[in-house]
Amino acid sequence: MEKDEDGGLTRTVPVFLRHYLKVANPAHRVALSQVLLSGHKYAVETGRRGKSYRARVDRTCRLCNQVVETPEHVWLECDVAGQLVQLRRDMVGDVGALCTPNELDWMTEADGDIVETMKRLVALRSAVSRVAQEQWRRKTGSEASEAPTAVRFTLG
Ligand SMILES: [Zn+2]
Questions:
Q1: What's the gap in Å between 5 CA and the centre of ligand 1?
Q2: Considering the entire predicted model, what is its pTM?
Q3: Can you say whether the dihedral through the CA atoms of 86, 96, 36, 145 is positive or negative?
Q4: Percentage of the chain modeled with pLDDT above 90
Q5: What is the DSSP letter of 58?
């Protein structure tokens, strides 16, 4: 409820909880939220302020030094490091196994656009826990020794 023009609490305002906030593993949920809210350590963000400031075009990938280091570049495009490529293969395989046929079709429609693919990865309700785990793995350098925990649907 919010106040109306007369100060009364009569106005109903819908509030929606983002589905990625339902990822059960708190560390995975925080890791994904940091990417979505630009609280990550990829160069596109770390070069935005303070002593580390660099023009956006100069915030290049620390691995390939070819393009701006964004989450979508590191997750989906950069192929310099074999470990990154393997992480990507593992994630794509796991996400593909978790998705519904309709979600797989929808992912295919991104047609190689890495920004659109990243947005769609996060939007996948069936696989968002695996996507969140992926960011946690990349952030911590951890192996995926445990399966991503299920999404809790206790709200909304
Ligand atoms: Zn790169």
A1: 53
A2: 0.78
A3: negative
A4: 59
A5: G
